[in-house]
From TrEMBL:
<dbReference type="InterPro" id="IPR000890">
    <property type="entry name" value="Aliphatic_acid_kin_short-chain"/>
</dbReference>
<feature type="site" description="Transition state stabilizer">
    <location>
        <position position="158"/>
    </location>
</feature>
<comment type="pathway">
    <text>Metabolic intermediate biosynthesis; acetyl-CoA biosynthesis; acetyl-CoA from acetate: step 1/2.</text>
</comment>
<feature type="binding site">
    <location>
        <begin position="186"/>
        <end position="190"/>
    </location>
    <ligand>
        <name>ATP</name>
    </ligand>
</feature>
<keyword id="KW-0547">Nucleotide-binding</keyword>
<dbReference type="Pfam" id="PF00871">
    <property type="entry name" value="Acetate_kinase"/>
</dbReference>
<keyword id="KW-0460">Magnesium</keyword>
<dbReference type="GO" id="GO:0008776">
    <property type="term" value="F:acetate kinase activity"/>
</dbReference>
<dbReference type="GO" id="GO:0005524">
    <property type="term" value="F:ATP binding"/>
</dbReference>
<dbReference type="InterPro" id="IPR004372">
    <property type="entry name" value="Ac/propionate_kinase"/>
</dbReference>
<keyword id="KW-0963">Cytoplasm</keyword>
<keyword id="KW-0479">Metal-binding</keyword>
<dbReference type="GO" id="GO:0000287">
    <property type="term" value="F:magnesium ion binding"/>
</dbReference>
<feature type="active site" description="Proton donor/acceptor">
    <location>
        <position position="126"/>
    </location>
</feature>
<feature type="binding site">
    <location>
        <position position="362"/>
    </location>
    <ligand>
        <name>Mg(2+)</name>
    </ligand>
</feature>
<keyword id="KW-0067">ATP-binding</keyword>
<keyword id="KW-0808">Transferase</keyword>
Length: 375
């Protein structure tokens, strides 16, 4: 029986779960917030880890290994690794590619290694699953020397989720993963699409950073890169202001004034024209990627919805799929709308690709990867 303590460390929070890997049981889960702020749960990540261990009480002694979510692994990390001083240095080396995420992930790793020094630690990367993309998919068409010098290419994120969900889709369809072509829509606060051929990612919508691709809660996703130059020149926005605009004041929030998809769907249902227009842009972008990835895959067995929005909103799933009947994609209103939680098929039986809902579980996937590595 192996127990893995899973840590998802953000800049001001630590999310954690203690998971019994064999039974997939979550023994304990929690969240520390507002680290470093007045009245927050702890002064810094190391104090935070000590607070977490206090909360675990007697269960702390049962931890066999620690699994850490690391958002950016650059090109160096193609699978989960045992954390060593060299690995910490390697993660640090790619941190400038993910300034919003990696420094916080590293703070969590350092704190946890100090406080839980007797057990092995494993880093599991969001980027790893997408390292199978071919060069034509990950290459940006800019000067090669500039791109190579600065590590500028598409990396892709949410890989732990895309891989977990692809396996779940194969189980649900009762077919081997290596015979399937899948388009996975991870629609949470951050959102991305992956084209998966025979269990391998061949393209994905996020890029150098988690800003590219779909319209997200607060992130713009795709735009003409000249928008940045234009706003700098005509509006005088600085680099930091542009960064903040695109990452925190754009996306659904920027279009509708609401950051939470539940509020947007409520507002649209109540006749709010901006909410309706925002959802139209959101769905248009998703359909754009479904069409592109159908072409790249050369065939399609299933479209799979996952994460907060994808798992919980029948109305938004229908909004995406209802205009894709010409591709053979349909949702059955009864199957789509019925209250259910587990993996399920929501398309009518018959011809054409299936449409599925497969709940993601990044923490369980990290726990399993950690257990597999420390054996
Ligand atoms: N019933 C629902 N209808 C629409 N959106 C929902 C529903 N339930 C959850 N969501 C949305 O899911 C998003 C959060 O998804 P989640 O995968 O938990 O994100 P993250 O892990 O990136 O924080 C929020 O925007 C929330 O509004
Ligand atoms: C990589 C990323 O966008 O993660 P999240 O969805 O947790 O913001
Ligand atoms: Mg998420």
């Amino acid at each position: 029986m192996m127990r893995v303590f899973v840590v998802n460390s953000g800049s001001s929070s630590i999310k954690y779960q203690l998971i019994d890997v064999d039974s997939a049981e979550v023994v304990l889960a929690g969240l520390l917030e507002r680290l470093g702020e007045d009245g927050g749960d702890a002064a810094d990540h190391e104090h935070g880890m000590r607070v977490v261990l206090d909360r675990l009480g007697d269960e702390a002694a049962s931890i066999d290994a620690v699994g850490h979510r690391v958002v950016h692994g650059g090109s160096a990390f193609t699978e989960p690794v045992l954390v060593s001083d060299d690995v910490v240095a390697g993660i640090e080396a790619v941190s400038e590619l993910a300034p919003l995420h990696n420094p916080a992930n590293l703070a969590g790793i350092r704190a946890a290694r100090t406080v839980l020094h007797a057990v092995p630690h494993v880093a599991v990367f969001d980027t790893a699953f997408h390292q199978s993309m071919p060069a034509e998919a990950y290459t940006y068409a800019i000067d090669r020397a500039v791109a190579e010098r600065h590590g500028v290419r598409k990396y892709g994120f949410h890989g732990t989720s895309h891989e977990f969900v692809a396996r779940g889709a194969a189980d649900l369809l009762g077919r081997p993963l290596d015979e399937l072509t899948l388009i996975v829509l991870h629609l949470g606060n951050g959102a991305s699409v992956a084209a998966i051929d025979s269990g391998r990612s061949i393209d994905t919508s996020m890029g150098l950073t988690p800003l590219q691709g779909l319209v997200m809660g607060t992130r713009s996703g795709d735009l003409d890169p000249a928008v940045l130059v234009h706003l700098h020149r005509v509006a005088g926005l600085s680099v930091d202001e542009l960064d903040t605009l695109l990452n925190t004041r754009s996306g659904i929030l920027g279009l509708t004034g609401h950051g939470d998809m539940r509020d947007v769907t409520d507002a649209a249902a109540g006749g709010d024209a901006l909410a309706e227009a925002g959802l139209a842009v959101w769905a248009h972008r998703i359909r754009h990627y479904i069409g592109a990835y159908l072409a790249q895959l050369g065939g399609l067995d299933a479209v799979v919805f996952t994460a907060g929005v994808g798992e919980n909103s029948p109305a938004l799933r229908a909004r995406v799929i209802d205009r894709l009947g010409h591709l053979g994609l349909h949702v059955d209103p009864f199957l789509n709308e019925r209250a259910a939680r587990g993996p399920r098929i929501i398309s009518p039986a018959g011809e054409g690709p299936a449409v599925l809902v497969v709940p993601t579980n990044e923490e369980l996937a990290i726990a399993r990867a950690t257990a597999a590595l420390v054996g």
